[in-house]
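Bench notes, bay 3.
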Amino acid sequence: MKLLRLTPEQTEALGRYLARAADVWRQLVEAFRAMARQLTRTVAAVAEFVQRQQAADPLGVATTQRRPAWMSPYGPPGRHRRR
């Protein structure tokens, strides 16, 4: 294993690069943190909306009749020929 000795200029340059990398990393973490907060708010709003919808119609939309019971879901009956 060979150890390299850095010159003072190289040490300063390395310090600047590491500081820049730490700054970029901090910005990335803050961006993800803001995105996670917004995602949490959105999911909470969707969950609240679904909860309100279920409270208004606990059996679901499938049970609500959108037409009278006598009406066929396939439309009016076809014409029959009389003999």
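Next record in the batch:
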Amino acid sequence: MAELNKQDIKDAVLEAMEPLARSIQKDFEKVNERFDGVDNRLDGVDGRIGGLEYRVGTLEDEWKSFREHASSLC
């Protein structure tokens, strides 16, 4: 019977682990795709928040102007 050397054992382990490694890689790719989707949605939310900040700032300016004009009428 032939003796097993370190390389034979290493090759056997790598061969046995290859399907598992491929499966894990596919799972990570799916997770990455989902994170890409989340990133895209968050980018959209950032844009909407920026628009809201602008609109609130505009309303604050208009409210300040209104108060100044209203106080001058009294």
